[in-house]
Write a structure and sequence with these properties.
Helix content of chain A: 40-55%
Strand content of chain A: 15-25%
Radius of gyration of chain A: 34 Å
Strand content of chain B: under 5%
Oligomer: heterodimer
Structural class of chain A: alpha/beta
Strand order of the largest sheet of chain A: 2-1-3-4-5
Shape of chain B: elongated
Order of helices and strands of chain A: EHEHEHEHEHHEHHEEHEHEH
Number of helices of chain B: 6
Chain lengths: ~325, ~140
């Protein structure tokens, strides 16, 4: 173990150092409480063997400081006290010391106490490792529980949390955002015609395409079977519309055969809704507008992006006519 | 002349003459042989001159403490007397210097009660005892 000896008396320090090293432990030492506190933080000893009465920080204060740390590692603390100062031992143990020894130090006693110290230190190390493993596992589970397995995009649970955060930002800071609902055109026919495996592949390919067209900070979710949802924070006109249009073009360019579609390849339709800065509609209403816009895109012949009527956006339909035939 | 066991030094008053027990009985050891043996074994185990290093440290420190004690007594600073006596007692105990521990304890206890009346005599006794400790340590080290 790594042991820190704290004593202002040089003879006591020398004897303690010799006894610790004789027992095969690594030893470093300081001569007052303030130095000890610094050494505990920088040298990370397993055990501190400290005198009670010292200049600067006393043994008691050192004890209290070590125990009030929140860094997680455990430092085993043994107080050294005089034969006639057993009340100090009681005070010290109450303040969080693990053990005490009577001065002058008997190396045989120290050996016995260090066996207990090694056992307790080992248990604390085990506990800390298990805790960090649990935390890592928890983080992983949290992430798995919020990810769609097929596409790797966020799932409905992740979306629900994003909506809550979004709502809070809008209320607090008046932020704006836009939402796009994206749907693969005639996907039921695609599955009927090419099988569910091909369907899964198409879903993955479309998801990758959406990801490629999104910018850092945008969030993508698998909303339902063949439906996706994009959240564009701080993007309204024309940012959101441009991103969705890039997605539509990108998917068409993948050129995945789809006989039931007029142009023979997999395409998407999208409905876009925007919450302007300062507006306070609830996110569900914005979502509903996006859904209505998506419905219109389908009605108007699919493979197109429509904006919600309430949004003061540019006419996306105009962009469609310019870029739809590539 | 009173032959005083070490423990009764606190009761010494002006006019008493102190004769330490081992002055009267030189066979009584100045240093606790058990502690000296323990330190010697520890040093041998580490292959270091632990006793010699300790002796140098102790004698240097003791000289400073005696000087500080005299100064503190001269200026009637009981708190400083308690501090020096306590430090010297701890260091003496480390080497098993039984007589020194006893004298330091008396000094410390009296001064803690703000009584410095026997302090000058106790410091004189302390200096005498220190010389014995130095002599007793010499077989264990070249430094003493």
């Amino acid at each position: 173990m790594r042991i820190l000896v704290v004593d202002d008396d040089p003879t006591s320090r020398l004897i303690a150092e010799a006894a610790v090293r004789d027992l095969g432990h690594e030893c470093f030492s300081v001569s007052d409480g303030d130095e000890a506190w610094a050494a505990v933080q920088s040298g990370r000893p397993d055990v501190v063997l400290s005198d009670w009465m010292m200049p600067g920080l006393s043994g008691l204060e050192l004890c209290q400081r070590i125990r009030s740390r929140t860094t997680g590692e455990y430092t085993y603390l043994i107080l050294l006290t005089g034969q006639r100062s057993l009340d100090h031992a009681l005070e010290g143990m109450s303040a969080g010391a693990d053990d005490y020894l009577i001065k002058p130090l008997d190396p045989g006693d120290l050996q016995v106490r260090l066996i207990a110290a090694a056992r307790v230190t080992y248990l604390h190390t085990q506990l800390a490792r298990q805790r960090s493993e649990l935390e890592a596992l928890n983080t992983e589970l949290t992430s798995i529980a919020r990810r769609d397995q097929l596409t790797g995009l966020g799932n409905r649970m992740a979306l629900q949390e994003e909506f809550e955060k979004l709502e809070a930002r809008v209320t607090r800071y008046g932020h704006r955002y836009s939402i796009a609902l994206v749907d693969i055109d005639n996907f039921k026919s695609f599955n009927d015609c090419y099988g569910h495996q091909a369907g899964d592949q198409a879903l993955r390919a479309v998801a990758d395409q959406l990801r490629a067209a999104a910018r850092k900070g945008d969030s993508l979710y698998r909303y339902g079977g063949e439906e996706f949802l994009c959240v564009f924070p701080e993007r309204a006109v024309p940012g959101g519309a441009i991103a969705v249009e890039r997605m539509r073009v990108g998917v068409q360019k993948l050129a995945i055969s789809h006989a039931a579609n007029a142009i023979g390849v997999v395409t998407i339709s999208a409905g876009l809704s925007i919450l302007d800065p300062g507006a306070t509609r609830p996110v569900n209403e914005v979502l509903k507008e996006a859904d209505e816009a998506l419905y219109r895109a389908k009605e108007l012949g699919r493979n197109r992006v429509e904006s919600a009527l309430t949004s003061t956006s540019l006419n996306v339909a105009t962009m469609n006519t310019e870029s739809v035939r590539l | 002349v009173a032959l005083a066991p070490l423990g009764v030094l606190t009761q010494v008053r002006e006019g008493d003459v102190i004769v330490l027990a081992h002055q009267a009985h030189p066979a009584l050891s100045v240093l606790d042989p058990e502690i000296i043996n323990r330190l010697r074994r520890l040093g041998e185990g580490l292959n270091e001159d632990l006793l010699e290093q300790l002796t140098v440290l102790f004698l240097t420190d003791a000289a400073v403490q005696v000087h500080d004690l005299r100064k503190a007594i001269a200026s009637a600073d009981a708190v400083a007397v308690v501090g020096s006596a306590h430090a010297l007692r701890g260091a003496s105990a480390n080497l098993g210097a039984i007589g020194l521990v006893s004298i330091c304890s008396s000094l410390e206890a009296d001064a803690a009660d703000d009584d410095l009346s026997s302090a000058p005599r106790l410091v004189d006794a302390l200096v005498v005892e220190l010389a014995r400790v130095r002599a007793a340590l010499s077989p264990h080290t070249d430094a003493a």
